[in-house]
Amino acid sequence: MSFTVVLIYTMFIVLFIGALWKPIFGVLGYLSVYILYNPDIWWGATFEHYLPRPSLTAVLFLIAGAFIHKGKLNWTFSRREIELYLFLGTVWFVSLFFGIGIEDNNWIYLMKMTKLFVFIFFFIRVVNSSNHYKLVIWMFILGAALLAYHAHGLSSGYFADGRLEEIGGIDFSESNGFACFQALAMTFLGVQFLRDSMWKKVMYVIGIAFMLDTIILTQSRAVFLGIVMAVPYVLFRASPKYRKQVYVSVILGGILFFMLADVKFFGRMDTIQQQFENQIVNTQEEEVGRIDFWKASILMFMDHPLGVGVKNFEKMVPYYDPNNIGRDAHNTYVLCYSEIGILGIVLFLIIIGETFLQIRRIRLAVKDTPHEEDIRLHTFAITTVLIIYLLGYMTTHSILYTEILWILLAMPICLENATKKLLESENQTTLNSEEATS
After folding, report:
1. What's the pLDDT score for residue 202?
2. Which pTM was predicted?
3. What's the CA gap between 279 and 288, in Å, rounded?
């Protein structure tokens, strides 16, 4: 067994067992497995021999730890949390009663979604303080930094057509998913850069440079699009206290980007406009493009308004577009209304809308309090990340059944619970001091 396998195996086991002492370690253990573990890579295959179901093991330890410490957890339910479980119920309901049939692959995804939402349930219970929320963010940052460092030492075998592939957890093994996760961590680290001391800023800049270069190695158009969409929000919605730092950071980040990017990267980014123009003038008559998928999905939706069931788009799309031999929808929203139907897409859009309303509610709750700047930076970061995903990655790829999407949508629930806890503690401290002086 190699040193890498021993190190990662030890980290997983320590976090799993640590969940029995403090449930937050169970959350971090699950996230570490999700970020790093892939049975299809060399060390993952070795690891699978000793622990074949690490994510399930992580969930079981998390559940055990949560019940051991149930008195310290938040067991209240918010409307937003209930909406998440309603979506899971809709996925099951549509797939069982209105789908075109359920085979082994359909069951796999139904069970994957169920396991994910079990984790989400305990994730919301456990991550109920500001410190726990920060630990989750740092798990993302450290996991992405480790993968970025690993990416720069890989052989050419990990590159397909010049693009970095097959690194990180299952959801990140495809280049766009991996690049978007790097953008997520880069955003969180960039916000951390704003608040910390100068010597820490130097370390953060090195990490951001590694992550940015890793994104360039993936040549991901989806993430490039998402970052472009997020920049206006970053520039116009930054806190007045940090606005100058943000402007300077964006400019320096742009300079660093142009220094690191090569001709291949810019050539691939040029294809975004080229493909769009080709679709408009119908010059790709034999090649099936994304707009062809989406046109076929509308016809499918008209025939199956309640959806065709989870993971059935690829089976059905050839009936509506003979040129499509059964490819993915290449759009999360298209996949949602195609497979989960009208109920699914309406609920999904409500969840997204409510997420941003919740973030706004958090900002208003901390206005003119000692915690305003700290919490506003958290809302600033999570909003930026959501924009990158919602307007970039999700418009060009189908990630409806990807865990990171639902974890991100659940994070504002955790942040609001943590904020309420901070404000209650602040009010109690003020009340105690007033009683002491009177």
Report:
1. 92
2. 0.92
3. 10
